[in-house]
Input
Amino acid sequence: MIYLNLFLTFLKIGCFSFGGAYGAIPLIRDAVIAQNWLDDETLAYMIGVSESTPGPIMLNLATYVGISQAGVIGALLATTAVVLPSFIIILLVTACFNALLKNKVFQVTLQGVKPCIIGIICATGLYMTLQRIGLSSVHEPVSCYPITSIGLVLSLAAVLFGPKYILKKKLHPILFILLSAVLGAVVFTLF
Output
């Protein structure tokens, strides 16, 4: 009976907790206090522990409550129940997204969004670089941008667009991300 109770309680929490883990804390509190699984003091300690351990707070709390009430099986049931609604929603969104990818209007919209995303990422990188060197405004003259940052952006642009036009092949996005990380680490540790 405790297994079913744990599963249904955390399934309800997973279904109705909007706004992230902090939005779920009142639901978890009401559920565990009503069931006499934890008292307020223990729950407060567990929230602190859940914040300091890796993973989402809601998931850590569900696992702790499950293991404290019904052992490993209880932890598995509570953890599964709390993530199940999100998992199902993501599956449905993915199924709808795959159908949308075949729609011409949606494809054109995505093509229009790509340059915007590139611009936002470049602007964020520039802003972070300016913050790193102590400039607080992006409206400073171009002459004060560090040469390393300009060189880094030009290098990444060459890697991004070079293979496409020279080799007639696109660079895989994961390879580009890894190359960007290595290049950024090298440049910003040297300079």
In short: The chain has a mean pLDDT of 79. The CA atoms of residues 67 and 75 lie 4 Å apart.
